[in-house]
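Troubleshooting entry. The earlier prediction with magnesium ion gave an output that would not parse, so I re-checked the input for stray whitespace and re-submitted. Clean input:
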Amino acid sequence: MNINIPVADAGMIFKRYRSQLKKLGINILGDLLYHLPFRYDDLRIISKIGDLQTGETVTIQGEVIFIDNIFTKRWKKIQKAKIADDTGQIEVAWFNQPFLSKVIHIGDKISIAGKVDYFSGSLTMQSPEYEIIVGGELLHTARLVPVYPETKGISSKWLRRQIYKTLQDNKQNILEFIPESIIKNNHLLPLLEALEKIHFPHLMKDVVDAKKRLAFDELLLIQLAAMKKRKEWECNLNSPIFKIKPFIDKINMLIESLPFTLTKSQKEALEDIFNDMSTSTPMNRLLEGDVGSGKTIVAAIAMYIAKLNGYQSTLMAPTEILAQQHYDMISKLLCNFDVGVELITGNKKINKNKNENKIDILIGTHALLFQNTYIHNIGFVIIDEQQRFGVTQRSTIRKKGVNPHLLSMTATPIPRTIALTLYGDLDLSILNEMPIGRKKIKTWLVPSEKRNKCYSWIEKEIIENNSQTFIICPFIDESESMQTIKAASKEFDRLKKDIFPNLKIGLLHGKMKSKEKDNILNAFRKKEFDILVATPVVEVGIDISNATIMVIEASERFGLSQLHQLRGRVGRGNKQSYCILFTESTSTSTSTRLKAMENMDQGRDLAELDLRMRGSGELFGTMQHGTRQFKIADFSDNSLIQKTKNEAKIIFNNFKQYPYILEKVNRLIINEVSPD
Ligand code: ADP
Ligand code: MG
């Protein structure tokens, strides 16, 4: 069977579970093989029953001498069995799994693994893993047992069985796509062996070797995909060539009209952008800078150049609030320069009587994607927080123009190694300094014994300095579940009742309707609340300059760049701002990590540190990037990145000779997942 077929076509069992599999990101049969264990339970020790000791986690193997359903007083069913070997017997119990008495029979040879307990006078195992011994390889006991990300209806046990079977049945379909010489030079395992070892290792070293091979593939393919995208981009030779020199005076007038001088890195970014715009190769540049570093001004000046050259520009932002903010700032900046600026969002359409020749800059949300009127010659496209948009959306907005120049912007700091591999097709400009005069946000890591003192200080700041405070509740899980909301509501009640009975407190969470969220944020802006309790996934990308205190609960659960981004929600105005990190953790490594927040104030430095201390998995969480295909490689492994980069260059120059690699690269480009 071809492993590229949809899972639904790969047999009844897959067809039945296809929607659950989809939830795990498994769409084709091959995806199943790349659904990797996140942990291995070590059940390799096989113990004689007579040697068992309380508390140990082991495998025992013996014969079933008893199995039956027992009813408890409350009519629950317990499945009890007795297993014997030549050294003794042990009773094991499962709960509410009546089917067990049908699949386990007296006389069966069975392998059982789990923790040994002591219960009313004898040893027992409760809800152990089990499998009947029929002669094949044991998958669930007596080995390093892989544990997988699960979803409702699909257990690790199910996945183990299906992955094992798929590997067995498809040995000849798992094509080695990396040439022999590269495998040899880099001491890699063959692909099939790597897949077998990552799922069913005999030693932990098997896992290390397998990961190395799969990480190599991943990094190689990502870089080849970036090279290919870049080449295709550059072959697209029809972008408008913008003149810069004739307009230098006008640009300078605009810059002089600003109430401040541009930072050095803003000037450098503009120079990069102007250089890109003055050639027919379309610009494809990423402008990276912390919140508040002044990206919008750079964008506005670049859009002014487009207007002076007779072209329209469009700027797409991920939320209505951000689009509105851009609109306010940009229309104010350009109001005396004869530039027509318009806003389009779900709620705000363009006035019908508008003269379309008067629109030079269109700012908006996703609503821009559906806008066709008023657009006649877009030469420049800007995407704010580019990682929040899918590939299709990004390409749709570009297609509103004819090969427009493209500038992406992000406030998410991306460490160099990641930027170079993941975004190898982009040029990079970085705003690495804050405008002068901006006050550093004072940050304190506060241990639990100082919590109450800290609350008193906050109350004093609010009352005496008329400040406002954000309190970010811990996230229980990433997908803002009911659990997270409950935790936030509970914290909200606690603060209202026990801590700040005299203050006005609001609550904001991601499950609220967007209208409701806007109302609450606006109420906060109007100072109807002193404190806003919010869940971390909530978009607080707004500028509330009076909010000067950011409190983050359970800060140890966040990556440093996440903390930095949350912290960036305060410190907008000219008042001194504060960030308070609460943690109940007592581990020294945690507090060392969090302490870095007190001294470091550059997002990028924090991201680099995060990468070194926690690996890339965490970072991808913050980047909100479609991470599915980047789950093996660790981007702190510079030497592997370098090796794969070198190989990628060689392969890229002779791509025709590597049809299997080319196929994989194309698939990767097509499947680049959209984050929404
Ligand atoms: P970003 O989009 O990078 O978060 P903005 O462009 O919104 O940042 O700028 C944040 C604030 O800083 C705005 O109020 C802006 O007017 C101001 N600002 C931008 N550049 C400078 C500068 N060079 N000097 C002083 N203030 C600046
Ligand atoms: Mg911005």
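This one parsed fine. The first strand starts at residue 39 and ends at 42.
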